Amino acid sequence: MTVVVSNSEKLEELKNKIIKDGVENLHVLADFDRTLTKAFVNGQSRPSLTSVLRDGNYLTQNYASKAHEFYNKYHAIEIDTNIPHQKKKKAMEEWWTLHFDLLIKSGLNKKHLKEIVNSGKVEFRQNALELMDILKERGIPLVIMSSSGLGGDAIAMMLEKERKLYNNIYIISNSFKWDKKGNAVEVKKPIIHVINKDETMIKDFPEIYKKIKDRKNVILLGDNIEDLGMIIGFDYKNLLKIGFLNENIEENLEKYKKSFDVLILNDGSINYLNNLIKEL
Ligand SMILES: [Mg+2]
After folding, report:
1. Ligand 1 mean position, distance from CA 47 (Å)
2. Distance CA 213, CA 130 (A)
3. Rounded Cα–Cα distance for residues 115 and 132 (Å)
4. Looking at residue 37, what DSSP letter applies?
5. How far does the centroid of ligand 1 lie from the alpha carbon of residue 20, in Å?
6. By the 8 A CB rule, do 12 and 270 touch?
């Protein structure tokens, strides 16, 4: 079984409320890496767009070794549940800042983003492109919120490649300033990292906030428990949470069931959501 419902009674109730309020009161809020994309491509674990850059030969040799050094140091902090929140937040800020500085020093160019997007190493989740079409048809905004180390430009390119960069899609992520030659020269502050990724960020994106502030019913998509933080700061009415539990299923199942209303296991298709939205 690929779909797990945490509490079917509660889910039915929630679905009915959302259906009753209609599409005009709904928006979808989604994480990007491993939520809208597959966690595994050709049997290879693919944590993020950034990991393609880190593991490939796109930039200087020095970039790869330094980036791995940062990863080894800070990823351990990221996943250590014993480290207090504030301390972790500070460390993640440090990591993202160091990594962006390194990218800029190592000559990151827009062409590298294109190469990564075209590498075939990252793919959209099964039926995710259909989801984009369904949301577009029904005029439902899709807010993609990502702490991506390659920023929103790479996400936009992924969508553009599939001709799905529709005008109901809004990307909240990091962004580089590029010079005329396409070199990254600066990254916009505040940096969005894995801990501060929440909808309060929308205050820094007022144009996007305007589009969704009256759409108080939200379907949230994430593959990490931390992704639930994306809704913090948004005054929602009904919130339906869909979690993608891509791996280590047995040890995480109970925790995820407590956190999400519906779980999609085994890096499965997003079709459950497509069918749900078709019901609206
Ligand atoms: Mg993710």
Report:
1. 8
2. 25
3. 23
4. B
5. 30
6. no
Cα–Cα distance, 32 to 20 (Å, whole number): 28
Q: How far is the CA of 222 from the centre of ligand 1 (A)?
A: 6
Place of tokens 């009415």: 237
> What is the Å distance from ligand 1's center to 36 Cα?
8
Gap from CA of 33 to ligand 1 centroid (Å): 4
Q: Please tell me the distance between residue 32's alpha carbon and the centre of ligand 1 in angstroms.
A: 6
pLDDT tens for 185-237 read 999 988 999 888 887 777 789 999 999 999 999 999 999 988 999 999 899 99
Instruction: Tokens 């913090």: give the residue.
Output: 232
Ligand 1 mean position to 236 CA, how many Å?
22
- Find out if CATH 3.40.630.30 is the number for domain 3-43+123-278: no
Query: Is 131 in a helix, a strand, or coil?
Result: helix
Give start and end residues of each alpha helix (H) in the chain.
8-21, 49-55, 61-79, 85-105, 110-117, 128-138, 151-161, 206-212, 249-259, 271-278
CB contact at 8 A, 212 and 141: yes
Bridge partners of 104? none
pTM higher than the cut 0.90: yes
Ligand 1 centroid vs 229 CA: distance in angstroms?
A: 12
Ligand 1 centroid vs 2 CA: distance in angstroms? 19
